[in-house]
Amino acid sequence: MDFNVDHFALFGLPKKFRTDPDLLDKRYREMQVLAHPDRYAGAGDAEKRVSMQWATRVNEAYQTLKNPLRRAAYLMLLAGKKLDVESNTAMPTEFLIEQMEWREAVAEARRACANTELEQFYHRVKQQMKCRYERLASLLDDKADTALAEDEVLRLMFLDKLVSEIDDALVALEA
After folding, report:
1. Nearest residue to 59 (alpha-carbon basis) of 29, 38, 82, 83
2. Would you state the pLDDT for residue 87?
3. All domains of the chain, ordered by start, with CATH?
4. pTM as predicted
5. What is the pLDDT of residue 154?
6. How far, in Å, CA of 117 to CA of 145, rounded?
């Protein structure tokens, strides 16, 4: 086990945003079999520690590559661009206004117990996310444009949070 390889190399995958999720899952299961601590139950303490570190590394790499936003941020990090999500508030005004309007629409639909409206809104946001993920894939895989990709990742993070808020609202209304 080489602890210095990147997540993609760990699973024998190309460094691309567009990944084959089935192949990633398959390689993860293969690595888990090799790295699982139970396999080293009779080994010495040092080997047990290394197997635990290996299993942890495999799990962390898998969780990063499986999640598209985390995978994008990781690719950007590999390219030398660290996302500063917590302090980056430099979003275009029209996007910030749109976000406020969407949040208000979710809050209004929730107050009105409008499940159908929330569900329609959910599907609209998911469709927009799908388009943005396609653009992000193009920016990262085809153009290697981390500046524009950063903007897409920040927008997708907001949309992902908005989808969670809509989900929460729908669950609350069903209860």
Report:
1. 29
2. 61
3. 7-66 (1.10.287.110), 93-174 (1.20.1280.20)
4. 0.83
5. 87
6. 36
